[in-house]
Design goal:
Blueprint lengths: L1 H23 L7 H6 L17 H7 L3 H28 L6 H50 L4 H11 L3 H15 L4 H12 L2 H11 L8 H30 L1 H25 L1
Protein name: Type II secretion system F family protein
Main location: membrane
Keywords: Cell membrane, Membrane, Transmembrane, Transmembrane helix
Length: 275
């Protein structure tokens, strides 16, 4: 019972520490003076430098750094606590596992729980960037059509964004609306959106569109070339992903074959060992 009491005390202490850390990242209701004097989030990224997740990824996934950190702490706590709780249940049945083994497994599951939100975020961001790039290829073609129809550079950018549906075109519209409120050109908003989401093609598009006033004749060709380039890259990435997924299927088949061989050989091996 001494080891059991130690496990319970360790679990309570860990839970208290996790609760304290999580409470530090839960925002209280801000005061007006704090909101007025609060610096821009882009000017103070050092607070979340230890997240091991770029702020651009969090912004693209629509997740706040505080929420991401809270998820990591909660998953780590769940991973760390379920092993001691299982040990307590086993101890009640007179099957008490060694304390060292319990502590090692608890630490391992805590690390897995800590890394799980980051892996989920990485997968979500990869899909979001692919969707945004695919929408950007379509957007480039619509802007080129607008230029063919003698629309000005600003109108050619804004009108196609109002036609599209989904979160990708909504982000493009919001970026240009923000630029308009700041008294800037639409491509300045797209430039910021590209930097915030980590989509390099958006920044490239701004350079193409910004030169429309100087070289309006060639911008149509440049926009179509940019759309073709994005579509070719997406196609190559899809083929690579399909090949990787196909290769991953070989491992389960190999394990299944190995398990079948062990199943067939086990009776004979067991007979040899007992005789």
């Amino acid at each position: 019972m001494t080891s059991l009491s130690l496990l319970i005390l360790l679990s309570i202490g860990f839970a208290a520490g996790v609760t304290t850390v999580a409470a530090a990242f839960v925002r209280a209701r801000p005061r007006l003076v704090d909101i007025v004097g609060e610096p821009s989030p882009k000017s103070s990224p050092a607070r979340f430098a230890f997240l091991a997740a770029p702020l651009a990824d969090l912004e693209l996934a629509g997740q706040k750094p505080e929420t991401f950190m809270l998820h990591r702490v909660v998953f780590a706590a769940i991973g760390a606590l379920w092993v001691p709780l299982l040990a307590v249940v086993l101890a009640l049945g007179n099957v008490a596992p060694p304390v060292v083994l319990t502590g090692t497994l608890s630490l391992a599951t805590a690390v897995i729980g800590w890394m799980l939100p980051a892996a989920t975020l990485k997968s979500k961001v990869a899909r979001a960037r692919t969707e945004l790039r695919g929408a950007l290829a379509c957007y480039c073609r619509l802007v080129a059509l607008g230029r063919i129809g003698d629309r000005g550079p600003v109108e050619a950018l804004r009108y196609p964004a109002s036609l599209g549906e989904g979160w990708t075109f909504r982000r493009i519209r919001d970026a240009m609306d923000e630029a308009a409120l700041l008294g800037e050109m639409p491509w300045d908003g797209l430039q910021r959106l590209g930097a915030a989401t980590g989509v390099r093609e958006l920044s490239d598009l701004t350079h193409v569109v910004a030169s429309a006033g100087h070289d309006g004749a060639s911008i149509i060709t440049s926009l179509r070339a940019k759309a073709d380039s994005i579509e070719q890259q997406l196609s190559a990435e899809r083929k690579t992903g399909a090949a990787v997924r196909s290769d991953r299927m070989d491992l389960p088949l190999a394990l299944l074959g190995l398990a079948f061989v062990v199943f067939l050989a086990f009776p004979g091996v067991a007979t040899m060992l007992t005789t």
